[in-house]
Structure formats: C-alpha cells, structure tokens
Specification:
With about 450 residues, this protein is an alpha+beta fold. The protein contains 19 helices and five strands. The protein has a five-stranded mixed sheet with strand order 2-3-1-4-5, with helices on both faces. The chain is rod-shaped.
Length: about 450
C-alpha cells in the first residue's frame, strides 16, 4: 500500500520536487568528510513502520536518492538564510564569509553522505571544519557556530517534506535532529581544543612579556608581544609584587589570571620562582584593584611599585617593587601592602642604586639648595636624638624656631622629621647625600 501524499501535494513527488527558492542553485564541491567517533548508533532512515504500519524500506531508498540530488539546492538555500538571518555573518570579511560558506556546504554534504549510509557514525564538526583554516575559530565564536548549525538544520528540516518520499518525512526529520545533535557536541569539542591551545600559547607569550618588563628589555619586539596579548594600553599601569601561594598548580594559576582580569581593565601575571608579579592597567582605581588581590598572594609583604604611564614604561616600577620585596625584611613593622617608595632606606641597604638616587634627589639636594639653614637644622635635630630642645641649644635658637624649620623640611621633601619612620628616611638621605658629595 502506498502511503498518502502530504497535504497540498498531488500524486507522487518526483526527484525534481525541490524548493522553489533554490531551484537555480548548483551542487557544491566539498571534500568527503572523514567519519568521527560514534556517539549513538543511528537508526537506518527508511526502516520501521510507515504511516499505515507498513515497511518504508523502499521509501527510505527513494528519500536517500532525493536528498542526495537536492544537496546542491539545499546548500544554496542555506547560504541565503545565513545572509538573511545572521548579522555577524554579514559583517565578516569576504574571505571569512567564503570559509563559513564552505563549512556550511561541508555540513550538508556530510549529512547527505551519512544519510546515504546510516550504518556509519555521524560526522562531527571536526571533519566539517577540516577544509577551513584553524584561524576561523578566532573569527566566529562557538555561539556563532551553533547558530550556523541551527540555520543549516532548519533549512533541511523545513524542506524535509518536499525531499522525503511519501511516508518517510518523519524518518528524515529524525535523522536531521540526530545529526544536528552530534554536530553541536562536536562543535563544543572543537572550540574547547582551540581555547586550550590558544590559552597555552597566550600563557607562554604573557610569561615572555613579564620577563622582558622585569629585565627592562623595552624594544619593538616587546611592544609587538604586548599588542598580541590584547593589552589595551588605556590608563596607567601599576605593578604589584609578592610571594606565591603554596601549591600554585595550573588550576590555581588559571584562577589567579581570571581574578586579575576581573580586577582591572588590563592584567598580566608572571611567576618568577617564588615571586608573583602582577601588572594592572586601566583608567580605574588601580590601588583599590591591588588591595582586592591581596588574598591571592602568599605570606609575607606585598609591594606596590610607583605608577607608570603605560606597560612598556613600567619596567622601572617593576624593578622598584622587586627591590622593595627583597628589602622589606629590614622593616619589622612593614605594612601589607607597602609602597616601594616607602622602602627607600631598606632598598639602599640592599644595594638598590635607583633608591639611592631617589633619596639624594628628593631629599638631600633640595635641602642643600634651600635657604634658612634647613639642612643644618635637620642634621642637628637628628644628631641630638630627635630632641627639639637639644637641637635648639646646639643651634643657639629657640625651640620654636627648630620646630618651624622642621615643618619647612617636610614641605620641601615630603617627609616629616617629627615622624619616627620618616625621620629615619631623612637620616638615610643625609647619609647617602654626604657620601656622594665626599666622593665627588
């Protein structure tokens, strides 16, 4: 018994019964995809009961022939739907659009090949993407790929009644759905592998950039690598240095990188032995971002370098922060975090030439050039055990005069001699300044 014809159709359909909107299409030339690992054992299209409970083996063979002959027209219809429905597809460069077209055609061809021999496992997206360059995964996202699959599947499903032999419409639609599920799972695998490879490459490139910044190799190659890792360059840059947490495996490192990228617009993470170096960039409050990352560092001090205008210019800040981390042990009450500039005396003791130069230029030279005996008053005050009265007797002035001059010292240098810690900074500045003067 012959199954009844679909509604609106008279007589038995012929192989030429293809969609009107694709009648002028041409068959695509696509390499035959290779089989992928099976997920489910396909049910042979055309097998089982028809609409009236009869076998549809003959209808299945007819459907296979009709689907095979209509593959070219389906590909043309899919291209038109992509251009009509997907805005991101229309925005692609011409070359990328041609690759997407090839992928879509390969998907239809792969389905037709599998439908003709359903004993073979369905092809996955890996085989469908084989004809396209790997860089295509950078141009279209996983979400875009799934939209592409959805459009192609919808085109085939929409015209399944016209392509299928009478009574085999349901089997064709089920085959399309089974195949689309396999493609969707395979697409996730393809993008997961691409993300893993890209993540490993980005991590190595990031390590090279951090190492170059720490060593001060700011050349054209560094600028190229900085651009490659996606550093936007907007705003200032802040360097934060501390120790690494215990058992910092790959999972913890990946979690640390995600945390730093949430904290600031731009972020780089470098692990140098037991030291953790973080570069933060952007137009927001970078100091607050650094405070939020404190739990990510290991025990011990965390040092923040001076702000820099940009990433390439942050090499001096990174060196200052690393020197501060080395010298922080010399300050028993060191806060966490601590600014590298607050550790200038300790950095001088560990041989940091930049800290020595900063102390001389910011304290000794301005005091020596100022009027009002500021340098002499500060020296007398420090030499008298930080006693105003004793310094006044040494200088033959009133203690209020000493107090006034010390306030002037704070205005000139930025360090207050009446504060215990800052007077130590000034005392170190006087010592290194006199040593440099005597050497000259």
């Amino acid at each position: 018994m012959t199954s009844p014809s679909p509604a609106g159709r008279t007589g038995s359909p012929t192989p030429d019964a293809v969609p009107d909107d694709v009648a002028d299409g041409a068959h695509p030339v696509v390499a035959r995809p290779r089989p992928a690992s099976p997920r489910t054992r396909p049910v042979r299209p055309g097998q089982g009961a028809g609409r009236n409970g009869e076998s549809t083996e003959a209808g299945g063979t007819e459907t296979q022939r009709r689907v095979r002959e209509g593959a070219g027209q389906l590909a043309v219809a899919a291209m038109r739907r992509l251009d009509a429905d997907l805005e991101w597809y229309r925005a692609l460069p011409a070359e990328d659009r041609s690759w997407v077209n090839l992928v879509a055609q390969a998907g239809i061809t792969a389905f037709v090949t599998w439908f003709a021999d359903p004993t073979r496992p369905p092809h996955g997206v890996g085989e469908i993407f084989a004809a396209a360059p790997p860089e295509l995964t950078r141009s279209i996202s996983l979400q875009h790929t799934l939209q592409l699959v959805r459009v192609v599947v919808d085109v085939v499903e929409t015209h399944s009644d016209r392509l299928a032999a009478p009574g085999a419409e349901r089997e064709l639609r089920e085959a399309v759905l089974r195949y689309s599920r396999e493609v969707a799972f395979s697409a996730a695998e393809v993008y997961a592998r691409a993300a893993e490879v890209r993540g490993g490459w980005d991590a190595r490139l990031e390590a090279l950039v951090v190492d170059a910044l720490v060593r001060g190799d700011a050349d054209d190659a560094l600028r190229s690598r900085v651009a490659a890792i996606g550093w936007s360059g907007r705003g200032a840059t802040l360097v934060v240095v501390g120790t690494t947490a215990a058992h910092l495996d790959e999972v913890r490192v990946a979690d640390l990188r995600r945390a730093t990228r949430r904290a600031a617009d731009d972020a780089l993470v470098g692990i140098l032995g037991d030291r953790l170096v973080v570069f933060l960039g952007g137009e927001g409050d970078l100091r607050a971002a650094a405070m939020g990352l404190l739990p990510r560092f290991g025990p011990g001090p965390v040092v923040i370098g001076p702000p820099a205008a940009g990433l390439v210019e942050s090499t001096a800040s990174a060196r200052a922060a690393l020197a501060g981390l080395q010298a922080a042990a010399g300050w028993d009450q060191v806060p966490r975090p601590v600014l590298a500039d607050d550790l200038l005396p300790e950095r001088v003791l560990v041989g940091d030439a930049e800290a020595r130069r900063a102390l001389v230029e910011r304290a000794f030279v301005p005091l020596a050039a100022s009027q009002g005996s500021l340098l002499e008053t500060l020296s007398a005050y420090l030499g008298a055990g930080r006693s105003l009265e004793a310094a006044a007797r040494t200088l033959y002035v009133h203690p209020n005069t000493v107090r006034y001059r010390l306030r002037r010292v704070a205005d000139v240098t930025g360090w207050d001699p009446l504060d215990a810690r800052e007077s130590y900074v000034l005392q170190t500045a006087l010592a290194v300044g006199r040593l440099d003067t005597a050497r000259d």
